[in-house]
Amino acid sequence: MTLSDAAAHQDITTVEVPTHWYNLAAELDTPIPPHLHPGTKEPVQPEDLAPLFASGLIAQEASTEAYHEIPEPVREILSMWRPSPLIRARRFEDALGTTCRIYVKYEGVSPVGSHKTNSAVAQAYYNAVDGVKKLTTETGAGQWGSALSFAGAQFGIDVEVWQVRASYDSKPYRGHLMRTYGGTVHPSPSELTEAGRAMLAKDPGTTGSLGMAVSEAVEVAAQDPEARYALGSVLNHVVLHQSVIGLEAVEQLNLHEKGADVVFGCAGGGSNLAGLAFPFLREKIHGRQDPRIVAAEPVACPSITKGEYRYDHGDVAGLTPLLKMHTLGMDFVPDPIHAGGLRYHGMSPALSHTVELGLVEGVAIEQNDAFAAGVLFARSQGIVPAPESTHAIAAAADYAREHADEVLVIGLSGHGQLDLPAYAEYLSGNLA
Ligand SMILES: *Cc1c(COP(=O)(O)O)cnc(C)c1O
Hints:
Blueprint: H1 3-8, E1 12-13, E2 20-22, H2 46-49, H3 55-61, E3 67-69, H4 72-78, E4 86-88, H5 90-96, E5 101-106, H6 116-129, E6 134-139, H7 143-155, E7 158-164, H8 165-170, H9 172-180, E8 184-188, H10 194-202, H11 210-223, E9 227-229, H12 236-254, E10 262-266, H13 271-285, E11 292-298, H14 303-306, E12 308-313, E13 322-327, H15 349-356, E14 361-365, H16 367-381, H17 387-402, E15 407-412, H18 420-427
Parallel strand pairs: 5-15, 6-7, 6-9, 7-8, 10-11, 10-15, 11-14
Antiparallel strand pairs: 1-4, 2-3, 4-5, 12-13
Helix pairs in contact: 4-6, 5-16, 6-7, 6-12, 7-9, 10-11, 12-13, 16-17
């Protein structure tokens, strides 16, 4: 029996783990605007980034190559859970009463339960090649911190994480997960850094933000010659690593359909959506399909639908390069909603660029509507989605109820089994 024969008889489709990452930017007529040096405001040079990032990642950040071979050690680790399943969500279709065919690309099968591991493993690898001993990073709900802690354990690198206080206090389990993998976790803002102390002096009761946590992690990496910094989203090299999601999904979907009509993903920093959507946009550019791409973001942090498209810092202290992106401003502190991974003031320059080109559209979702869709999905399909992912599900559900016979693909960026207190709050009617 061939793979496609087998696939036709089951709802879960698998293909090979990709051998190359895909870089959409190389195939666009207009390039992504370059990152600028925070001091000189000139395009940032590789040597400017060297204190913070591994050389292999700096090269990827400015790459104009469409394909990058995935190093074998990285591909081997990815093969522990990849290819991730593309699931036809028939019971969810029935629950919605739609004739649309809904496919879900499920990243919750990774060790830490989200797509973040795809880039964490690659980043740890390139740092190990450069002899780096320690990686510092920020995390919101803890998905990225746990992914990097896992990846650090694979390559013998220490991982130190600053977690947004709102999530550190309300979601202790991912902290336990990070420590289980050997990582160290601090609530942010902390007394451990100059940036953290300054933020606490200004507002001692702050719930923190990803922008603050980035400042702390960058400061520590910049001062330690054996340490580098890792970012879980936003940057071009992260988007590149996440392309495995879409490369698999395009192939998996081709076994059943003539392509997607609409692809939905949640967007915090933009990496899981870009990872899923950019290979579909490759198909569009080459005239093989014509999908719409929808970025679902929270009403509480609407960088695409309400933000400005301009240069801004990635962090609160202004230590990072200036990025051309949709931003709510580096000082923006969103309400402490449960989708911690969507509480970032900016958006990936690569995804922002495709929004400007009219290839991607944004939609803002209320937290209660997101959880309602998440609960409906859990009751019909069994998988409890991450609070972040429920935004994509809600956007797709709204669409499916109003359309017929279309092929929809939803990026299910992670599972929510460590976010059940948030579901409990929703179910008891206590959600703000
Ligand atoms: C981090 C995270 C997100 C948001 O980050 P993106 O870079 O926008 O993908 C979404 N879903 C989950 C499960 C996450 O952990």
